[in-house]
Amino acid sequence: MYVIIIGEGRRVYFLAQEFAEKGYQMAIITPDETEARLLSQQVRATVMVGNGTELAVQEEAGARKADAFVALLDRDEDNLIACQLAQRAFGIVHTLALIHDPENETIFQQLGVSATVSVNRIIALMLEEQIGFGEVTSLISLARGRVTITEIVLPAGAPALEKTLSELNLPENSLVAAIVRDDDVTIPHGASRFLPSDRLILITQPDTYDETVEALVGKHL
Description:
Helix content is 35%, strand content 28%. It has helices spanning 10-21, 33-42, 55-60, 76-90, 105-110, 119-131, 165-168, 206-217, and strands at residues 2-7, 25-30, 46-49, 68-72, 94-99, 115-118, 136-142, 147-153, 174-181, 184-186, 199-204. It is of the alpha/beta class.
């Protein structure tokens, strides 16, 4: 796997360390010369100084052979431009952009960015989980918005309670991928039975999302 990362700050360093541990080959493009020197000493990667939104810079970083492209710049518009360039000029299929304004998430997906990470949205979701409100939490959107991974907590009175997976007759193109119960995680099968406070990891497509959630937790959400 060959990955290009553009950006600056500690987030680039930590992500590069994670990728290095997985054995990925990397090129890092950063606009700061001092940071580039430090990164070249700290991580196993080709480190360049430059503007990652420019075609020549991406090409020099090896974009023609890259499998994935990650944009972690401080401005959403720069991350969008960089990902679109990587896709259109070099055919990089897997692009991921950091988003600071959650309202830009849909726009990025509509314009072809493979996946987005919204820091503010993640913080909000973590807060919701900690203080315990909200039974349905959208975790991530993939494949340009065509697939959604959602976490659902089964409340008292939910229609799925005490039923087996096969009894629910969930719509096509939906999947209960995991049941989190206390500290245990199980992959459900047809005979799996749902209990109060179960946390379900749900994979759906947009046209089946509402129907699937309704079958599990009811219309009251």
